[in-house]
Design brief:
Blueprint: H1 14-31, E1 33-37, H2 38-57, H3 60-70, H4 73-86, E2 95-102, E3 109-115, H5 125-187
Antiparallel strand pairs: 1-3, 2-3
Length: 188
Amino acid sequence: MRHGDAHRKFNMPTSQRRALFSNLTCALLTHEQIKITLPRAKELRTFADNMITFAKKGDLNSRRLALAFLRDEEVVAKLFSTLAERYKERNGGYTRVLRAGIRYGDAAQMAIVELVDRDVAAKGAKDLARVAAEKAAAEAAEKAAEEEVKKAEKKAEKKAEAKAEAKEEKPTAKKAKAPAKKTTKKAE
């Protein structure tokens, strides 16, 4: 009799499989919808549902178990605040697997895994926030560069004015010095 036959092995060692599903669960809880192969999607349901069940319990031990599996404090915070509140009245079945055709590279069956009653704005929200932050940083850098260019132009103008003033002052000094030199030459 074969015991412990509950999950697929995916032709990889246990540690790699555990890391794979930890990362997939983090991605699912962050974006609330991801696209992966069908067998992985079917296995992912159990891990995601277990994490949401931990969140609904809400005690310290459940939080520690979720953090040990997910290894991401932001995802655990979202899980225990937002998602636990959303699925408080639901008794299970927090995820949905939708078939999404085949992948052209290797003809693998693809599927979309999503949380039931998901927040549509959550998908790609991190990327949108990152892009907005990069755009703001680029604009700030551009403004700083413009300010430095203006400062450099002002310095150049001040130097030009100082040179112009110096040129105006120098001819009077040269006229006074020139006869003195001529007199010294005549004295020799």
